[in-house]
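Journal club prep — side note

Before the paper discussion, L.F. wants everyone to see what a predicted structure for a comparable chain looks like in C-alpha cell form. Sequence:
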Amino acid sequence: MEYRKLGKSDLHVSAICLGTMTFGDQNTEAEAHAQLDYALSQGINFIDTAEMYPVPPKAETYTRTETMIGPWLKRQSRDKIILASKVAGGNRKLDWIRNGPAAVDRDNIRTAIEGSLKRLQTDYLDLYQIHWPERNVPIFGQYQFDPTKETKEWVSIHQQLEILAELVKEGKVRYVGVSNEQPWGVMEFLRISEQYGLPRIASIQNSYSLLNRGFEFGMTEIVHREQVSLLPYSPLAFGHLSGKYIDDPQAQGRVNLFPGYAQRYTKPNVTPASAAYAALAHKHGMSPAELALSFVYHRWFVTSTIIGATSMAQLQENMGAWQKALSEEILQEIEAIHLRFMNPAP
C-alpha cells in the first residue's frame, strides 16, 4: 500500500480509504467489523464515516454507522488509525438531524462532534469535514447554480472556521476538511484561514469517477497549487461502473434498493457511457470495476480514494484493482469515450 501526505498536514494516509456508508443498513455490525479488519490487514489506515451515515439518510438509521464503528475502534491502537467523520450541513430537508435545522453554527457543530466522539468511542478525530455547504450550491445531481434559491441566511465560512478552530484547540479535532464543495468555497476557506490564522482545510471530498469528471474543470488546479488533497467518493458511480446494470437494469444493488436516490445517475448518457467503459475493460482483460477504480486510484491529483462494499468479495476486488495500473493505450481509449460521453452524471 502507498501512503500519501494529506494536504499540508502531518498525516500520511493510505491511497485507499475505507468508506462506511453501508454500515447499519446494507451491512450488519459483524460484516462491518470484518470489512474493517480486512482493510487494516491490507495496509489501509484511513477510515471515513459521517454522523449522517448510513446512506441514503433516514431518521431511523441516522448515526448507526458511527455506533457500529465505535466498538471496533476501541479494540485498535488508536494512533495507527486515521479516522475521518463529517458534520451534516444545512440547506437540506433533514429535520431529524439534531432536531433541525441542521446548520453549521456553533451549537450544531458542538452537538455533532460530541455525538460523533461518543459513538466512535474516541477522544478525537483526525479529520473533521463539513459534509456539504450550508449555502446555496448545486450538489448531489444538480449542476447549475441558481441565484434565485438564495432564500436564507447561512453561517459564514469565517464563522465556520472559527468554530472548527475551537475544536482543534481543544484537541477534539486534528485537521479539518470540506466535502461536496465548489471552487468559490474552497478558495474562501483557504483565503480566510490564511488571513485570520484559522485552521487550513487539508482536504476536499467530492464525487469523482469515469462518469463524473467535473472536478477536472478548475478544481484540479486549485488542489495542486494550494496543496489540498482530493478524497474522491463514488468511484464506481453507485455501482453503474461495475457493469451490472447494463444487461440487467433490475440487478441487486443500491440503484434498485433505494429508488429515486442519487439523481445524478438517472441522466440519459449514464447507461451508454457505462457500457462503453465496460466494453473497454473486457477488451483488455479487466472487469469494469477494476478499470473504473484503477483510473481513479492513479490520477495525479487524487490522494486517497474512498471505496465501499457490501460484501467481502467486492471489497477484495476493489482493493485488488490498485495493482492494475492502466497503460497509456487504455488511458487514451478512456479519453476517447470521455469525449463522446462527457460527464454524463454531474
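L.F.'s comment for the group: The domain at 3-205 is CATH 3.20.20.100 (TIM Barrel). Keep this in mind when we get to the figures.
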